[in-house]
Amino acid sequence: MTRLFRQRITLNRTRFGITYLGWDERLQTRVAIKEYLPRELAGRDADHRTVAAHSGEDADAFAFGLGKFLEEARTLAKLDHPNLVRVRDFFEENGTGYLVMDYYDGLTLAEYLARQPGGKIPEDQAIGILLPILDGLREVHAKGFLHRDIKPANIYLTAANRPILLDFGAARQAMGEHSRSLSVVLSEGYAPIEQYQRNGKQGPWTDVYGAAATLYTMVTGQVPPAATDRVSHDTLRFDLSDHVRNAEYRNALVQGLIVEPKFRAASLESWQDILLGIGERQVNKSIPAATVTLLWLLVILLTILVVGVVDSYFSENLSTHSTPVALKSGATPANEVETQPPILTPTIAEVPKIEVSIPTAVVCDVCPELVHLPGGSFLMGSPETEPGRNLDEHSHLVVVPPFAIGKYEVTQATWRAVMGSNPSVLTGCDACPVENVSWYEVKAFIWELNTRTGRHYRLPTEAEWEYACRTSKSSRYCGGNDIDGLAWYSNNSEDKSHPVGRKRANTFGLHDMSGNVSEWTASVYSKDYDGHEIEAEKTEVGPFIDSLRLLTVRGGSWSSPLPTNRRIA
């Protein structure tokens, strides 16, 4: 190398090039110099300096890749971010191209992980490394560019504890698409499914997958399974519970590593918000989602505010063509004769005898014990005079068709029988509700349950949850006003969950709805309701839900500090 740079030491060799430690004669400082040299296409000439293609066919692919390499260099030179490698210069010489970058003392994240026990680091440390990288990557995306090769080997940790994103893979990907094989340009485990497809649509979501896969490696000590292996048999979301105890982190990983691109986080901003804890998905109230009507319905309960505990209920829709109907103020349903529809106050005797066709060949040892509820209309939301009423509550008439809901919360024993593991923090109690599960893990549980039983469970809508809870217009809690007799909360729980069904049931015969663990619904939160309360999220296994669409959580938990947290509305 002539010009103003001199080669000193070889730092790294890959299938696509060599990186040297160099010296900038003009600035009198060390630099990193990356040479474009794809070994499968080219090699050194007789002078041991000039780079030449192996054949005429290889020459076309080499020239195409060199053009992309220099195009990428021009783009990187326009970027200026403390967590992106800085490009000082680039030039062509010796029949190939060179990219001159800042040199930093330190080591790659891959090297750092290899020195740690089990090849992994604590979750908080992993997040601390990744978030600055995502900040830099957002600037890359803002310029209309993608990285396409995010992995631990391409993240550099400087001696000053600054993570820096290296070695953009766009040129390699383009070269692979132009030549014989895509496999040579992919980093298995970190590349999403669309990078295996010649016509796969790539975008910011492609880098989200690589970033999430890198986070997965940091906290588990393992490389994720190849995306192609996960298409037909995906166990990644279940394996996470063995390595990641924090449900928030598991939720972020699952959302970033969804195989199908259209369900994955669409932008870095949205996925980064999850890592930052923005958007508080666990709204300890109720509200709406998107519509779904299935023959069998499942209701699953969510995390408690302090410990992040989650639990589950089951609901079964017995009307395959009807959905709940929300009426505007003053409207009356066609089959309602009273001018002022009263709050429905059902009793067990009012539950109609409904026969449901269940495959006789299935011996179901994990199916929930269901309670059938009659359809009807009720005023959803608490009265304005009720103590503890939230500002975003307003009473409005809702009509709900018949359905069935689980008598008890899903227990740890049931979850283990379906999923093969128990993610709960408060273990040692098989009859206690399962907890510490994210909404996405709940959706995975439902999918597994449906697959095993041949039925179609789902989460309940917020309207269905409140209808099942609200059996009297004068009750503040699910079953009456005696909170100690109906629910476990901070005053009586001894800081733990309890076996299901120990507290008194409400009129429908449902237990623990006002307290043990908080409960997920299928509805997306809206402060104005907007009909979301009668709708359910459509997807079989939860897709990414952006930070502006919060899923509703109902009921309270054993750690709720005040009885008002356990109210019906």
Explain how this protein is built:
With 569 residues, the protein is of the alpha+beta class. 24% of the residues lie in helices and 17% in strands. The protein contains 13 helices and 20 strands. The strands form 6 sheets. A 5-stranded antiparallel β-sheet has the order 1-2-3-7-6, with helices on one face. α5 packs across α8. The protein is elongated, with a radius of gyration of 29 Å. The termini are far apart. The C terminus is likely disordered.
Helix content: 10-25%
Rg over CA atoms, rounded to whole Å, is 29 Å
- The unreliable regions are 180-184, 278-313, 316-362, 539-549, 563-567
| Tally of DSSP β-strands | 20
Main sheet, how many strands, which sense, barrel? 5 strands, antiparallel
Describe the secondary structure blueprint for this structure.
Elements: E1 5-13, E2 17-24, E3 29-36, E4 42-44, E5 51-53, H1 56-77, E6 87-93, E7 96-102, E8 106-108, H2 109-114, H3 123-142, E9 155-158, E10 163-165, H4 170-178, H5 204-220, H6 227-230, H7 236-239, H8 247-256, H9 268-276, E11 283-284, E12 298-299, E13 313-317, E14 325-326, E15 370-373, E16 376-380, E17 396-400, E18 403-406, H10 412-419, H11 439-453, H12 462-469, H13 483-486, E19 519-524, E20 551-554
Parallel strand pairs: 11-20
Antiparallel strand pairs: 1-2, 2-3, 3-7, 4-5, 6-7, 8-9, 9-10, 12-13, 13-18, 14-17, 15-18, 16-17, 19-20
Helix pairs in contact: 1-4, 3-5, 3-9, 5-8
